[in-house]
Design a protein that fits this description.
Carbamate kinase, eight-stranded mixed sheet, about 20% strand, Archaeosine Trna-guanine Transglycosylase, Chain: A, domain 4, single chain, five-stranded mixed sheet
Length: about 375
Amino acid sequence: MIPKDLIAASKTIIIKIGSALLVDADNGARIPWLNALSDDVMVLKKAGKSILIVTSGSIALGRKAMGVSHTERPSSIPLELKQAAAAVGQIALMECYIKAFSSYGQAVAQILLTPSDTENRSSHLNARATIHALLGKGIIPVVNENDTVSTAEIRFGDNDRLASRVAQMIGADLVIQLSTTDGLYTADPRVDSLAQHIPLVERLTQEHIAMAGDALAGVSTGGMKSKIEAARIATESGVHMMIAKGTDHHALSNVCNGEARATIFLASGQPRSARQKWILAHVKPKGGLILDAGACQALLAGKSLLPAGVKSIEGAFERGDAVKIYDSNGKMLGVGLCAYDGESTRQIAGRKSAEIHQILGYSRGDELIHRDDLVLNS
């Protein structure tokens, strides 16, 4: 498979952009490069693709305001200065994206996440619903790690992994990691002239992990090791990933047209089946729903669970918790993540989805359990 074919087959694409691409040696934004990126992104959107951008750069852009030298390695900057720089730089970063897409009349939206937001069940559902709502309206979500409130040390490669976690969360087809290198090599090409480029990785192995080097000095915090870990997360979630060189203007279009060299990491399964495995492995059910015959048939046909099909509720649970699903005879059909808490579910059980807002005073969507959050017994 070549990059051009993979992109053509992908509906939802996440583009991850590192600090080294966005910010120059003096901690200024590379505006012409970003304008070229916006051109390339709009070509993809016109081709019917849904695009989400995961961006670094807030700390790098905020260094100057905090009096941090552009030559100082990120690992040597105290955490409080990093977080303060992120607070300043995030505003500048979003201004750059807004201006870059303004000539197209294209709206962008800021989403700040930490890796835990994609793992906590309630936050996961909220973030996913927000992103899908934005994509549904044609808006480009611009995601960054919420460095300012991070409780742990801001460490190498968080946004590499965050891009893959977001892909897992929304069921994306492809993650494109635009980097300072054109992919994975058998050895570090900076120091080994015999290093050979690897165009395709069908299955990640320990050998591939051993090939990865460390981060480059300067503004970038993500090295090849973090990208390999990101590839593991993505491919195990049924998402393809690509590493391509992004330093040149219109690097994205070069990749899309098959004119740029890259490394493709093929997904190891379908996104939905991978997510089902994650639910079974990590989630403990806290309650139960008893369904009528019509709802049971709908689930078996691959539909989501609507409140109208729920006859009764067992136990107490919060939004995002897993619940067991039973038919009216007590046979367990499967497990799913519920979009409403137990008390709210009791109020809307047996009612039409159009009545949810009237009953609760708000709505979190028509489905009690989305089909992507449902695992049926085989």
